[in-house]
Prior knowledge:
CATH architecture: 2-Layer Sandwich
Strand order of the largest sheet: 3-2-1-6-7
Number of helices: 6
Shape: globular
Strand content: 15-25%
Mean pLDDT: 95
Distance between the termini: 12 Å
Amino acid sequence: MPKFGSDDWAKAYMKAINDNPNYKQAASWWEGDFVFVIEPSGALDKKINMFVGLLKGDCTGAKTLADDEEFEILPPNSPPRPLKEGEKVGAEFIFSGPYDNWVKVLGKELDPIQGLMAGKFKLVGNMAKVMRATKAAQELVNSTTMVETEYY
Length: 152
C-alpha cells in the first residue's frame, strides 16, 4: 500500500484518474497542470510537492518531486508542459495546504473547493477557471478513493 505523497502513490493516483470515466467527462475541456503542495502538519514533518498533469480528461503524468527539485509557475493558459527527464517541472496551478487538511480531502470530509474558499488551502493560478471545474475537482477526489493509501 503506497504512502500518501510518495511517488508510488502519485503513479497509482494517475491510474485511478485515467480509470475514472466521470472525471474524463467532467474535465473534457480542462487544460492545466497542478503542483499539489502538502505542508507539514500533524504526523507529517516535511513538505511534499506532487506534480499532476491534467489535459482534457486525462492525467498525463504524476510524480512526487525530490526535496531539492524546483518547479515553476507557468503563465495563465500556458499549454501543459510534458514531464521530461532533466527539465524543471512547470504547472499553471499550485494548490497548497497542511497535511491534516489533505487527509480530510482524501477522506471526503472536506471538499477541496470549499476548503479553498474557507482559507484551508491556497491557490496560485486562475481562480475563476478552477471555480468552473468543481465537478472535475470532485472527481479528482473520488479518484483518490480508488488508491489504497497509507498515511503518516
